[in-house]
Specification:
The chain is of the alpha/beta class. It contains two helices and eight strands, in the order E-H-E-E-E-E-H-E-E-E. A hairpin with a 5-residue loop joins strand 7 and strand 8. It comes from Rhizobium leucaenae.
Length: about 120
């Protein structure tokens, strides 16, 4: 069976988005070109940042139609991430709150992509 292993965000400029993700993920890109940057993640997944003007075929719409989720384990792990990311000055779209699935919050990357932190399903 084929399993997905790459999510791509369309960004204005990968060079402008790279420092944000380098700092957030604590790693250097595995691949970088003027139009595409990829970060290899520990779980075998990859995050790609593709220059929006070079995407083929061009997307039919741009906007917040999804989220990249960071599921963190451990007592108080979501709140610890919230405090860390807030201290870094990341734009908070949703303050730390309790939802049906547990504590969560959302920050935005430089292009407005939503990054949600929550606990894994139990």
């Amino acid at each position: 069976m084929t399993s997905p292993n790459l999510i791509i965000f369309y960004v204005k400029d990968p060079g402008e988005s790279t420092p944000f993700y380098r700092d957030l993920l604590g790693r250097e890109p595995a691949f970088a070109s003027p139009n595409f940057v990829a970060f290899a993640l520990d779980n075998g997944f990859n995050l790609g940042l593709w220059r929006r003007s070079n995407v083929e075929p061009q997307p039919s719409a741009i906007g917040n139609r999804g989220e990249l989720g960071f599921m963190v384990e451990g007592d108080g792990a979501v709140e610890k991430h919230y405090q860390d990311w807030k201290a870094r000055g990341l734009p908070i779209a949703q303050e730390l709150t309790m939802m049906d699935f547990g504590p969560t919050f959302v920050v935005l990357d430089p292009d407005g992509h939503r990054l949600r932190v929550c606990e894994p399903d139990k």
